[in-house]
Amino acid sequence: QVQLVESGGGLVQPGGSLRLSCAASGFTFSSYAMSWYRQAPGKERERVAYISRISVTTNYADSVKGRFTISRDNAKNTVNLQMNSLKPEDTAIYYCHAPTLGSWGQGTQVTVSS
Prior knowledge:
Blueprint lengths: L2 E5 L2 E3 L5 E8 L8 E6 L6 E6 L6 E3 L7 E6 L4 E6 L8 E7 L4 E2 L3 E5 L2
Parallel strand pairs: 2-11
Antiparallel strand pairs: 1-3, 3-8, 4-5, 4-9, 5-6, 7-8, 9-10, 9-11
């Protein structure tokens, strides 16, 4: 059974940092690309970052380029999202996603506010 469990969300002030983690199980993690998505209230879910199976390729939404970094540890079956210089518009529920499998985590709330 495929499981994706996000952690690391919370409340942070503008300009602060958070590191999200997603623990994967139930599939051969190293064989699949992974993504992070987010959904803000009243908005559609959007892809924030993508990483290929062995980290050769990464890409980011224009809104987070230079501030967010996606990484993965295939030995630990985890994918991470380091978020720096956070802005109020980054407030959303962040989801871990395995595109080929169509699987989603339950999400973790990130709130950027003073």
